[in-house]
Amino acid sequence: MITTWLILAAGAAAIAWVNWYFFLAPKSAAGARTGVGGVQEVDVVVEGGYSPSVIRVEAGKPFRLTFDRREKSPCSDELVIGEFGVRRFLKPFEKTVIEFTPDRAGAFEFACGMNMLRGRIEVES
Amino acid sequence: MPPIDLENVGIAPAPPALESEPDAASEQDAQDRAQAEEYASLRRKAIGSGIVGAIAMVLSMPLMSAGSHHGSAADPLVEWSMRFLDPIVRTAFPRLYAWDAAALKYVLLALTLGIVVWAGGSIYRQAWRAFRHRMANMDTLIATGAGAALLYSAAVTVAPNFFLRHGVQPEVYYEAVVMILALVLAGSALESRARGQTSSALRAMLSLQPAEARVLHNGVELDIPAASVRPGDVVLVRPGERIPVDGLVVEGKSAVDESMLTGEAVPVEKSAGDRVIGGAINRLGSLRYTATAVGSASVLAQIVKLMREAQASRAPMQKLADRISAVFVPVVISIAIATFMGWALLAPEAGLVRALTAAVAVLIIACPCAVGLAVPTAVTVAIGNGAQRGVLFKGGEAIERLSQVDAVLLDKTGTITEGRPSVTGIYPAEGWSESGILGVAAAVEKHSEHALAEAVVGAAAQRELNVPEARGFRAIPGVGARAMVAGRSVSIGNEKSVDPDTTIPASLLAAAERSASEGQTPLIVAVDGRVAGYIAVADVVKPSSAAAIGELKKLGLALTMLTGDRRATAEKVAGAVGIDRVISGVLPEGKVEQVKRQQAEGRAVAMVGDGVNDAPALAQANAGLAMASGSGIAGEAADVTLMRSGLDAAVVAVKLARRTVRIMRQNLLWSFLYNVIGIPIAAGVLYPATGMLLSPVFAGVAMALSSVSVVGNSLRLRQ
Asked: Does the CB of B668 have a partner CB in chain A at under 8 Å?
């Protein structure tokens, strides 16, 4: 009887934790710093995921995203920002710069080629 | 030949590519290299762990044949295969069975650990990195599944008595761990190679750009890098060579094979004044031409750019897949935990091992990759295939929208017809030959800029006539033109260009009236005040139009022709190509209205036209197909750019779009069903009814095949 309750409790706790950890826990977010010439800049480390994975920028100002890929896992070798027509290969252990000017406000996903690794660009007007 | 100092001969070296805009070729190279490395590494690891897996299988035989007396081998597949293998191993290695079971388990533990570190290391590293970002992917599932099996086996090996005290047989299944890793790695290797093949069309496109160009510089022929050619440079191309950059032919005559750029199967004749596209192959003659567009402005670079952007786009159909892959892994982990709980609670007599095996099978069989690859691989392959056949899709959405179209509006001029007038008939008066009047007419028209004049001059050039010089050229607006040719006064134009009293032979008059009734324009040629004959000029139907329109009808599309022409002319053309519905007298700005009207009838409308005049109608249509004009690729308004002017390209586009969407649907359905059916079976839902259990090793086989089959299905679009 005790075993049954133990299995139930442990199992339920494990499921709850998995879902909390992957879905509910807050993700790392960062705003852009303003660099030379009013360019908004954000560095993103690519290593099994994107950190920060939520990026806040202002609309209408040029935006420079630097992806610092610190692995050669094929999962992260492509970066797609569908909304802005960007598909880029990120060279392993190198930095890849992507520049564009977000022309409209909204939340836009960026992801790996298979949409397993994901981040979000929040463009504020 | 010594290298030439480009600076000294006044040729600027290629500007360095902007860091944020690398050239597509080098990026593709880097990606290909990374992919090749990855494939080689995965292959090596898959083969290595496969061999170790076989050894582990043999070493496990004595343990399992001992365990099977208790009737509870951990893995049903292994149990089944053991029945065949056990007697063989027993005969081949009888001494193995004399070994101490505990020692064998330690040997297996060492072997497995070695494989997990060497071959599975990258899986664990990636799973861990993703985990730290609160992300989960396929590696997470494999790492957890194989890890659970390994940890359990290790615990049993180190502390068998603990398990015995709790009534659990101390069984290990190291061989399953190694086999799972081998299968997953083999699957990844196959998938990596297949994924590389999806961009083969883009690679082929990039390889069209020749590295060198031969330019004429201060009268000297120089071989310089193609990237250093500047607009205005004079480029020389010999037979069999590739055209290095876009340009306008100045001299020479040749047939140029543009099939890889436009899908046009027949080589195109090129002579002075014609455009050539960089990347095409010059067949027979030599050409000398002026470079017009180089680098990123060239047609080839624009095609590549459009292809890359299109492949980056996400098809609307992807949305469902995206929603699923976003939650996939954590949900599967939850199901695996629930599976373990279910077995432990509902069938405690089956033992902890069964519960663990089922949970591991769930983790291993689940395949988020198949879901994630279903749509993007199809889009990538379709865009590549289209580009090689002269059809450039703007993206996955364009493909989907075109596939849904049930009505097509076709602009007449330039779409069904050539879009420029040409000579359709010559009717000489008595005493004149066809080439005779064409020659004198061309002599006059050579000096004219009228569109009809171009047709006359073109026809003379085509017949290779010796066109005499004309003097004293005079254009009379609304009437025609006249000049002195070889001492005789020649006029060409409409009926007003000749004296009203001039007698026109009845047979000629009849021919002229017949031409006019067919929508052609008859030009009267008069020499020294006497009518020498008629030249009929018209915008002729493209040779491929009728067949292509037949094909479009066969695809079940309702066709309508739009034109600004008068009704009679319009119906002649429509009748010739087999279109039943004609809307004539449409002004350019009225085309949008026509598209809207059909949409209001509930139709999904495709508009086929040119990218400039028809832009608003193309944008309004559900799918806009624009015919590229010689110099470049149509603008923003078009969902699909047709690189050759034949309507057959539109047929290719519609067929390819429909096939692609079919393949996307198959892929999505297959990858969903695979998981929806595979996961419950792995969890053991069939066990109560049929006694069927899925081995984690078999789950590994299924997983490896599922994503490969999705990519393989998409690759069918290459044909």
From this structure: no
- Give the CA-trace dihedral at B177, B180, B181, B185, to 10 degrees: 180
Strands B281-282 and B254-257: antiparallel
Answer whether B327 touches A (CB < 8 Å). Answer: yes
Contact A22, B330 (CB under 8 A): yes
Residues B306 and B329: their CA atoms lie apart, in Å, by: 34
B346 touches chain A (CB under 8 A): no
Taking residue B247's Cβ as centre, other Cβ atoms within 10 Å add up to 28
Put simply, the chain B residues between 161 and 190 with a CB less than 8 A from any chain A CB are 188
Burial class (CB in 10 A: 0-12, 13-18, 19+), A41: middle
H or E stretch covering B396: helix B396-403
Query: In this complex, do B308 and A77 lie within 8 Å of one another by their Cβ atoms?
Result: no
User: Count of alpha carbons within 13 Å of B391, Cβ hemisphere only?
Assistant: 26
HEC readout, B686-712: CHHHHCCCCCHHHHHHHHHHHHHHHHH
Beta bridge partners of A43: A66
DSSP string, A7-74: HHHHHHHHHHHHHIIIIISPPPEEEPEE-GGG-EEEEEEESSSEES-EEEEETTS-EEEEEEE----G
From chain B, pick out residues whose CB is under 8 angstroms from the CB of A3: 348
Give the other-Cβ count within 10 Å of B8's Cβ: 7
Q: What is the ipTM of this complex?
A: 0.78
Q: What is the DSSP letter of B95?
A: G
Contact yes or no for A11 and B337 at CB 8 A: yes
List the 53-112 stretch of A: residues with Cβ below 8 A of B. Answer: 53, 64, 71-75, 77, 80-82, 85-89, 91-92, 97-99
Work out the minimum CA distance from A59 to partner chain B, whole angstroms: 20
B281-282 and B488-493 as β-strands: parallel, antiparallel, unpaired? unpaired
**CA pseudo-torsion sign B376, B377, B378, B379:** positive
Which 8-state DSSP code applies to residue B412?
I
* Calpha distance B203→B585 (Å, rounded): 46
Query: String of b and e for B55-88 (b: at least 16 CB within 10 Å)?
Result: ebbebbbbbbbebeeeebbbbbbbbebbeebbee
Half-sphere CA count of B209, side-chain side, radius 13 A: 25
Structure tokens at B235: 């480029």
Active site residue B499: no
- Nearest to residue B703, comparing CAs of B685, B680, B678, B666? B678
> Which phi and psi angles does B227 have, rounded to 5°?
-70, -15
Check residue B534 and give left, alpha or beta (phi > 0: left; psi -120 to 50: alpha).
beta
| Mode of pairing for the β-strands spanning B558-562 and B407-411 | parallel
Dihedral (C-alpha) B348, B354, B358, B360: value to the nearest 10 degrees?
A: 120
Cβ contact (<8 Å) for A71 and B334? Answer: no
pLDDT, averaged per 10 consecutive residues of chain B (719 residues), comes to 44 40 72 86 94 89 65 56 79 83 91 94 87 83 91 90 80 87 89 84 86 88 88 91 91 89 85 88 90 85 84 80 85 95 85 85 88 89 92 92 95 85 88 89 86 84 85 85 90 84 82 80 88 88 91 95 82 89 85 93 92 82 83 67 89 96 95 93 88 83 88 91
Name the residue among B223, B184, B246 with its Cα closest to residue B50. B184
pTM (2 d.p.): 0.81
Are A80 and A70 in contact by the 8 Å Cβ rule? The answer is no
Tokens of B150: 């390994």
Residue of B75, B233, B411, B610 marked active site: B411
